[in-house]
Amino acid sequence: MTRPNPRKTKRVSKKVLDQLRRVTTPTLTTQLLKNYRLHNVALRGVLPLDGDMPAFAGPAYTLRYAPLREDLLPEQWMDHPANLMTPAIEDVPPGAVFLMEAGGNVDAGLLGGNIVMRLKMRDVAAAVTDGAMRDIPEICEIGWPVCCSSIAAPPSFARLMVVDRSCPVVVGGVTVFPGDVIVGDAEGVVAVPAHLAADVAKGGLAQDHLEGWVNRRLATGAKIKGLYPPDAKAQADYQAWIDAGEPDEV
Fold first, then answer.
1. Measured between alpha carbons, how far is 81 from 59 in angstroms, rounded to an integer?
2. Measured distance CA(106)–CA(110) in Å, rounded
3. 166 within 8 A of 62, measured Cβ to Cβ
4. Partners of 150 in the beta sheet?
């Protein structure tokens, strides 16, 4: 079997993105581990700023930061001709996830309220980083998905500089190629390789549906043995419940 070239990322359809948005991040990690032996897919330490954040899924549009070299500080100002952030904000496609590698540096906030507002108005799906964010009350009021590792008042150029975009990045210890699907919910953020997205979405929806039935059975007092994970009898009972139109009684 020919291995997919991650540098030529497969485009993921809107239908598949909508399906992935409905799959929980714990289920996604299970699917990727059990079916594809992918252990390193959950972005470590990257969590929603707002616990009520809606789930999101979108192809990664990547930006890479590096520790600031002071002689290049002027280029970090957004009105400098060589600044990379300004064109990135306007070039990120609607529906994409603005994914920023900060190398775990949490001494400066990568985005503030104005940039977040612009990204929201451009219909970008979310902003995700293993660094920090600033203007937190303003961002929360905007009500748009933002995931990060910390909060920091200083601007990004106090410690960091943008050095590349639309390139492979490492965020929260996970390698992501542009176009890989980034999925986030209240429990964290997961990177799904683009060429696996359709199968992972299908398997994830099926797993969540089955486990929802299992949970309802457990809520009636059923014993866990043979039910989770479901044995042949439990699988048959589950299929019979589906065939009956998924009645309230399980």
1. 28
2. 9
3. yes
4. 132
State the first-to-last Cα distance of the chain, in angstroms, to the nearest integer. 42
How far apart CA 118 and CA 120 sit, in angstroms, is 5
Question: For each of the chain's 250 residues, which pLDDT tens digit applies?
Answer: 445 565 566 799 999 999 999 999 999 999 999 999 999 999 999 999 998 999 999 999 999 999 999 999 999 999 999 999 999 999 999 999 999 999 999 999 999 999 999 999 999 999 999 999 999 999 999 999 999 999 999 999 999 999 999 999 999 999 999 999 999 999 999 999 999 999 999 999 999 999 999 999 999 999 999 999 999 999 999 999 999 999 999 9
Q: Where are the beta strands (DSSP E) in 94-138?
A: 97-101, 126-129, 132-133
Separation between Cα atoms, residue 237 and residue 227, nearest integer Å: 10
Cα–Cα distance for residue pair 81/201, rounded to 1 Å: 42
pTM over the 0.85 mark? yes
**What span, in angstroms and rounded, lies between the C-alpha atoms of 148 and 164?**
19
Structure tokens at 22: 């409905």
